[in-house]
Amino acid sequence: MEYLAQVRVIIFHIFILICVFILTCLAQSIPQSYLDGLPFSMPEVQLPTFPARTISIVDYGAVPDGQTLNTKAFKDAIQTCAKAGGGTVIVPSGVWLTGPIEFESNINLYLENGAIIMFSKNRDDFALMPYPTPNSKNYQCANPIYGYGLENIAITGKGIIDGSGEVWRPKKKEKYTVNQWKKIVESGGAVTEDGKMWWPSDQAMKGEGYLKNLRKEKKDLTKEDFLGVKDFLRSHMVVFYSCKKVLFDGPTFRNSPKFCVNPIQCEQVVIRNIVVQNEWNAQNGDGIDIGSSHNVFVYNCIVDVGDDAICLKPGNVDKERGWSVACENIVIADCIVYRGHGGFVIGSETYGGTRNVSVRNCTFIGTDIGLRFKSSRTRGGKTENIYIDGIQMKDIVNEAILFDMYYEEGKPEQGSMREKMPITERTPLFQKFHINNVVCNGASHAIFIRGLPEQFVNGIEFTDITISAKRGVIGVDAEQLQFKNVRLIVDEGPIFDFDNMKDITIQRPGFQSSITPFLKVSGKESMEIYLLDTKLSGISQQIERGSEVRSDAVIFK
What we know:
Layout: H1 2-26, E1 54-56, H2 71-83, E2 87-91, E3 94-98, E4 101-102, E5 107-111, E6 115-119, E7 128-130, E8 139-141, E9 145-148, E10 151-157, E11 160-162, E12 171-172, H3 178-186, E13 190-191, E14 197-199, H4 202-217, H5 223-227, E15 238-241, E16 244-249, E17 252-254, E18 261-264, E19 267-272, E20 275-277, E21 288-291, E22 294-299, E23 302-304, E24 310-313, E25 327-333, E26 336-339, E27 344-346, E28 354-365, E29 371-374, E30 382-394, E31 399-404, E32 429-441, E33 445-450, E34 457-469, E35 471-490, E36 496-507, E37 519-522, E38 527-532, E39 543-545, E40 554-556
């Protein structure tokens, strides 16, 4: 009987090895459809490949009962596999409780169908670590999954990774019912004096103020300084930093302490066929955040989260690799977003710069904003060559399309008296956007654009767009915009509302003649607003001009 049991184990391992080999072969290329028709030259992206070696965490003492802490088993399996030359570390079906998992090069973490990696709810299991690099003088709690300076890594399979984020995240009272809030408060933790926010501990609640004051007193903080606010220093769930040839394919990533899937300063990244899920009220619960990375494909993903869904965060440029912008050559396609603060987002940190981005055939349902581009005077950089084609939206809470250069800075002054500030390297510049073939059924505002008086949003093309919304297009401090075949079904006028807008073309618009005025213009810098192939004869109030607007600001052609 013992001999037969050994044979069964050997056959099982051979079967797994064959399956992994087949999946690896199938995963060696990106479908040609994602390469065809790109509006920029996309460098070749090589997917990781792995030796035909499999190691199960069970062989290193892992127990799938959801109670036994398997941190050592994961570590031993990964390090053994890496030292042998790499391969696939298998997580079988079961509930595997663990602390942080640190990756090594040439490792594919493969989750079988039915496997759940559940990270510990004991915050003491996550020690402070230098972040984001091992040489950093800043610290945060260890990321549940982390890798630095690696090559040829992957997380694959059909299992689930749960970050146990509920023990880390603060909660806002306004996002919960009375009974839910009562249970949260009764669970322990700490509540702010105004009663509007719950934190998992008093240390977490006071952490931001503690660090702020400490940095005023000390130039360089030590690890011991950060220990005083450990509960505040919650981590992102999956962080690969400065890695090359990275693959996410298949698993569900859910319930993260903060951002969920977060490659930073990586190149040759493929994220496909994954599900990312956080509760709608998860504070800072972003889905897929591409941080300062090059040559990235994201496709066939489903995202349902509590903050930005699919987001580019171009922070600092990696000058050691000769990069001139932080985010470059990124393709996003065939993704569905059910909830999030934005379906596709750039910002708010844009100071590293972004260029060459293609977003195609994506669907957003119930997001706060559809296409969201945000920055501010302290977070800015150049964002350009953004190509968006084929976006379907439904039930968008606020704006279907938003450009806002005042993120978290409050609303600017109304009219033409907005103060111009000196242009610096941190002044955001959003230009050369091409937004085509967008349909949105239901939004508060169709399109909202707000640049800065010292640096306008410019060079945006909107073509073949249909949006039903309460309000139409609002533009402030922008230039060189084109609206071609833009159909707006709105509840109230004006259909186009411009303040300090210049060199604007509206061509063959679709609109209801009963909604007036068609165009409202204010601001002394408004000029060269061209209406092409636009018939306004059936509208009782066609154009409303402010007293400061030149008489020839609007031109019919």
